[in-house]
Each structure stands twice: as structure tokens, then as C-alpha cells.
Amino acid sequence: METKSYTLDDVEPTYRPMIIDGEDAQAQSGRTFTRLSPAHEVEVTSFPHGGQEDVDRAVTAARTALDRGWRQSSGSERSKLLLKVADLVRRDAEALALAETLETGKPITQSRNEVAGTAELWEYAASLARNTQGDAHNALGRDTLAMVVHEPIGVVGMITPWNFPLLIISQKLPFALAAGNTAVIKPSESTSATTVMLGQLIREAGFPAGVVNIVTGDRVVGAAIAEHPGIDMISFTGSTGVGKGIASAAGRDLKKVELELGGKNPQIITPNADFTAAVDAGVFGGYFNVGQCCNSGSRLIVHRSMADEFAAAVVERAKHMRVGDPLKSDTLVGSLVNDAQLAVVERYVAEGRDAGAHLLTGGDRLDTGLNGRFFQPTVFTDVTARMSIATEEIFGPVLSVLPYDTMEEAIGIANSTSFGLSAGIWSNDINEALTAARDLRAGTVWVNRWMDGYPEVPFGGYGHSGIGRELGRQALAEFSELKTIQLQVGIRENRWVDAPDAPRR
Ligand code: NAD
Question: Is the domain of 322 the same as that of 235?
Fold first, then answer.
């Protein structure tokens, strides 16, 4: 993998049109918007500012493409196209990584890893495209045979957030395409570049026009997608609040909805843990992507006998993180995404202090010499389960340490929020670890590890963390309708109306 660093001299502001029906498209309003790099405050990209009329065009294109052959395309055909996209993503990996870093503020090395993960997702979905087989029922009686087949749902609207733009659209789109759907996509207005670049690669790979359409813009575009009568399913990743609004809008039209929402994820650290590995995972879970992850491990639930020692070790280790210019390849943590997110983090730090939690380290902006939104790695101790810093998603580099005495209490604290995305248990006692893994209320439980994922294993949340699952072979079912086909074998002897004189024909 490439290891070079960049400077602002390498940055050229780029205009990136939308893609509708296979063509570059401008907003019908003629409006555009611009994205500045959050770490440097320089212009990096501009886009058409789409609206309802552009969504209408995109939906028409997606519907036409669906009905003009994509719905009937073979698994082999879909699979080859998906594999081609994976190859093209690898070919353009460096350009994609740089664009991702410039818009998100995340380190270039991290972006390179995410681009590599993106290619893996497209490749895995390609394998599913050839495995869309259903079931056959052969024991329903001598005169009956039944089949259960998967069909595409139709036009899928996809709305994505800014924290992992390329990865998140790639957790949805290739799976929906593998199942034979078409798509209308709205990326976050803060980070649209890599989604549009992906759209260009999809076109180059040879997908038929209209199968994938991308409309750039703000929440107006998102709302137009959520409410559009020509869209059959909404797949949304973002905040719980917006997700609820989207589910209500989609519900008015009874669209299928799949939601990947927020989290307030606990890591339970027991006295039986590998202490050093758990400390490292604590730091990683708290500060990776500046804490702007749905999977951040923002609640450290630590046995009281070791809570102070553990918190001190987290602070010590966090001092070794290189926070700063995301264009440098040795930077580990970059900038928050925008001023609004910086203000949210500052507000929660103030709330934690006011509620009586002890601010062990951090709590303020970090001066890196750049014109960006950098924040100190922050740790609160003496946090109780009801404080807002322990119940609400902060989406910043803020860890809360909550002490516990018994495992029952630890599980109670872990399960005490409305979220249920992911959770972790650190223990080398296998019975303790497996019992906790069963008792934790979350879509993913990590045992003695944190925050890794694979295209093969499903991902999603309980409660306010979402509805449905992405990834794994389950994703294919998520993007499919099931149809039951029942066949009569031989003559249908049982008549509903008894009419013995009727001639047999
Ligand atoms: P957000 O909810 O503010 O925005 C997400 C997307 O929805 C954006 O494209 C935005 O333009 C659009 N949008 C905003 N308001 C809308 C409306 N009223 N109608 C239709 N669309 C609208 O989220 P964000 O700030 O971009 O991302 C951060 C959130 O995403 C966090 O809560 C995080 O936990 C969540 N997230 C979840 C997962 C997961 O897989 N569970 C992954 C990443 C991020």
C-alpha cells in the first residue's frame, strides 16, 4: 500500500457533477455547493445542489433501468460487473483515499485502509450475486411442489452519513445490486466526493445506464427520496433522530426500511482481562476517527478494583497518538468533521463537568498549528449511568469510565441505554465471556477485541440503533422480496364445487 504524505500543494479544487441515467448531471436549479477541508479550511470540492426535480429524474431512470432488463439480469452478469468495480476501486485507490481525507479530515493512512475494505465489500457482494437460490418444498403432498424464490425489491433509495462515506455506501449498494435492484443515492453533503467517484467507476465498469443514480445535496434531497412514491425501499445510515423521521416518511407509503443508526457502545473490562490489550482497545474505541464512529466504545465499564489504574493507563497510552494533519501518513487521528460537531463535543464536555464527573484529561480544543477542528483526547471518570455523557452519542473523542462491582451490575449498566449497536467483553475466563456475550443487548458483541468487521458477518443494531442488517448473506435477503410459487403436479382432483356432470376437458 502507498505510504506517501501530501501537502496542500497537491490539492486541486474539483467540481463533481451528479450521475443520473448514466450521464453527468447538473441540478435543474443550477445551484452548486462547496466543501472545505475541515482540517485546513481550503476549498476541495463542489457539487450540484440537487432538489426534488433531480430526485424525480433519478427515480425515473432507476425504474426504467429496472424494468428494461436489470431485474432479469443473471447472477453471473451482476457478479462480473461487481468484480469489475472492485478492480477499478483498487486501480484508483490513491485518488479515492485523498478525496476521502480532504472531505472528512481523517488520516490518509486510514482512508487507504477504508478504500481497501471497500474493494473487499464489492468482491464479496459479487460472490452473493451468484448465490441467490431459494428453497424447494417436496413434501407437501403428491400433487404439490412449492418453490420460494428471491426477487429484487425494486428501486432502493440510499441515504448516507459523513463519517465513513465510501465504506458505508459500499455496505449497501453492491448488495442491493447483487439482488437485482436499482438505486438512487444521496451522500452526505459534507462528504459526497468518493460516492460520486464510485458512481463514475460503476459507469466505467459497464453497468447499464440508470441502474445507479447519485443526487448530491442536503436534507431536502434526503426527504425527497424518503417520501418518493417511485421508491420501494429506503436504506439509511445516520443519526437516530433523522432515522426516525425517515422511517415515518417511508411508513406513510409502506416502503420497506433498513436503518443503521447511532450507538453508545459499552466495553466491559473485567479483572480477568488482558489488561494491556484492553487499554489499547479502550483508546482505539474512543479515539479512532476522532470518536466519530457509530461503533465507538465510548463507555468503559471497568471493575472498581482496577478502574483508576485502567483510566490512568488509557490517558498514558493516548499521549502516544499522533493527532494532526490528516495529509501526513504517520498521523493517527485527524480533525472533527465540522464546526457543528465541535460544538456538540464541547457541549457534552460541559454537561459532564456540570453533572459531577471528573475530567481526568483533555476537554478542550487542540492546537495543531492548522486551521482545523482538533480536540484533545478526553477521559471522564466517576461517571454514573444516567449522566448524558453516559447515555447519549457524543460522536467525539470523549471516553467515560463507569466502575462496577458485580457482573450483573456491569451488564445492567451496559444494557441501560436505548441503543444496542455493539458491545465488548474483556475476560480470559471463557464462561464469563460467553455468558456476557449472550446477555449484552447489541447487534454485535466483541470478545477480547474491538471494532473489526468483515463483509461476511452481518452488522446492525437493536433498539434505537436500527432496523435490519447489512453485510453477510443476510444482506441479500434484506434487499430481496420473497415469492412463493406453488405448482400443481398432475390433475387437480379436489374440486371446490361438487359438479359431477361437468365434462372433463
Ligand atoms: P445525519 O443523520 O445528520 O445525516 C445522515 C444523512 O441524512 C445525510 O446524508 C443527511 O444529509 C441526511 N439527512 C439529514 N436530515 C435529513 C432529513 N430530515 N430527511 C432526509 N435526509 C436527511 O447523520 P450524520 O451526522 O451524517 O452521521 C452521523 C450519524 O450517523 C451518527 O449518529 C452515527 O452513529 C450514525 N452512523 C451509524 C452507522 C451504523 O452503521 N449504525 C454508521 C455510521 C454512522
Answer: no
473 and 442, same structural domain? no
Helix (H/G/I), strand (E/B), else coil: 42? coil
Q: Which of 160, 219, 221, 246 to mutate to test the pocket of ligand 1 (most atoms within 8 A of CB)?
A: 219
- Residue-wise pLDDT for 16-27, tens only, equals 999 999 999 999
pLDDT at position 493 is 82
Confidence check: pLDDT of 504 > 80? no
- Ligand 1 contacts (CB < 6 A) are 159-164, 168, 186, 188-189, 218-219, 222-223, 226, 237-239, 242, 245-246, 260-263, 294, 393, 395, 421, 461, 466
Positive or negative, the CA dihedral 281, 161, 9, 114 is positive
Cα(243) to centroid(ligand 1), Å: 7
Range of the domain at 339: 266-447
Cα 129 to middle of ligand 1, angstroms: 28
Cβ(213)–Cβ(21) below 8 Å: yes
pLDDT in tens, 32-60: 999 999 999 999 999 999 999 999 999 99
Per-residue pLDDT at 88 exceeds 70? yes
Q: Which of 163, 190, 235 to mutate to test the pocket of ligand 1 (most atoms within 8 A of CB)?
A: 163
Q: Are residues 306 and 205 in the same domain?
A: no
CA nearest to 396, candidates 296, 318, 314, 292: 292
pLDDT tens figures, 257-295: 999 999 999 999 999 999 999 999 999 999 999 999 999
Cell of 244: 426516525
Helices (H), 137-270: 165-170, 173-178, 193-205, 219-227, 240-252
475 and 390 share one domain = no
- Give the chain's domain count: 2
pLDDT band at 461 (very low <50, low <70, confident <90, very high): very high
Identify the residue whose C-alpha is closest to ligand 1 atom 17.
219
CATH of the domain at 78: 3.40.605.10
- How far is the centre of ligand 1, averaged over its atoms, from the C-alpha of 273 (Å)? 35
Pocket test for ligand 1, best of 168, 239, 444 (most atoms within 8 A of CB): 239
Question: Predicted confidence band at 483 (pLDDT cuts at 50, 70, 90)?
Answer: very high
Residue 162 carries which DSSP code? S
94 shares a domain with 68: yes
Residue 495 in any domain: the answer is no
Could you tell me which residues are beta bridge partners of residue 266? Answer: 299
DSSP string, 220-241: HHHHHHHH-TT--EEEEES-HH
Residues 100 and 161 in one domain: yes
Catalytic residues: 260, 294
Question: What pLDDT is attached to residue 260?
Answer: 98
47 assigned to some structural domain: yes
Examine residue 490 and state whether it is found in any structural domain, yes or no.
Answer: no
> Is the Cβ–Cβ distance between 359 and 316 less than 8 Å?
no
Whether residues 330 and 253 fall in one domain = no
- Which CATH number covers residue 309? 3.40.309.10
Q: What is the pLDDT of residue 505?
A: 64
